[in-house]
Amino acid sequence: MQPPDYLADYLKLKAANDQLRERAKQWLFETFGRLIAETNRSFSDQPGVAMIQTGFQPREFKADRATMVGEAMAARYRMNTLLVEVGWPRLPEHGFLTGPGLARGRISLSPNPTIDANLIDELILKQRGTEADWHIISNKQIGAMVTEEYLRACLNRVLAD
User: Fold this and answer.
1) Are 124 and 142 in contact (CB under 8 A)?
2) 133-142: long-range contacts at Cβ-Cβ below 8 A with a sequence spacing of 24 or more?
C-alpha cells in the first residue's frame, strides 16, 4: 500500500481554490466594469459631462495579519475615486487567511486622488460547493452577499458631489 501523497493533494486543492479566486475576481471586476460602461453611455447624451475613468494596477493590502496580493480596479469621476481591491496570500511570508475565506477584498472611496481612500466595506470570498461568492464583512462577521445592486450603490457614491 502506497502512502498518501500530501503534496499532490495540496497542489490539487490550491489549483482548485486559485480557479475559484480568479473567477470571483473576474466577476467582481467585470460586473463593476459593465455598470461603469452603462453609466458612461448614459453620460454620452449629456454634452460637457465627464466620463468615469477606470484603471487597474497590482495591489497589496493587509487583512487581519496577512498580506493580500492581487489587483485593484479604480473608477474616477471628477475628483472622487472608488477603489475595488482583491487579493489573497500568495507566499508563506504573506501569512494566511483566518476564517472560512478564500480571498479578501476592500471597497474604498477617496474624495481626492492625493488623499488616502476611506474604507466603505471589507469583503470576503466564501466557498459554496464548487462555486464562491463575495460577502460583506460586518462587525467581523460574514454578512450580505455582494450583488450587482450593491456594486451599483458603491458606484453611485463616486458620482455624488
Assistant:
1) yes
2) 133/24, 134/24, 134/27, 134/28, 134/105, 142/99, 142/100
- The answer to whether the beta carbons of residues 98 and 111 sit under 8 Å apart is no
- In this predicted structure, the answer to whether residue 145 has a pLDDT above a threshold of 90 is yes
Please tell me the pTM assigned to this model: 0.90
**Which residue in 128, 134, 130 sits closest to 103, CA to CA?**
134
Q: For residue 161, what pLDDT is reported?
A: 60
CA-wise closest residue to 59 among 36, 93, 82, 88:
88
**3-class secondary-structure state, position 156:** helix
Cell 466620463, located at residue:
51
Residue 62 has which C-alpha cell? Answer: 493587509
Cell numbers for 46? 449629456
The residue whose grid cell reads 452577499 is 145
3-state secondary structure of 97: coil
Contacts 24+ apart (CB under 8 A), 42-51: 50/77, 50/78
C-alpha cell at 1: 500500500
pLDDT tens-digit map of 17-39: 999 999 999 999 999 999 999 99
What confidence category does residue 48 fall into, taking pLDDT thresholds of 50, 70 and 90?
low
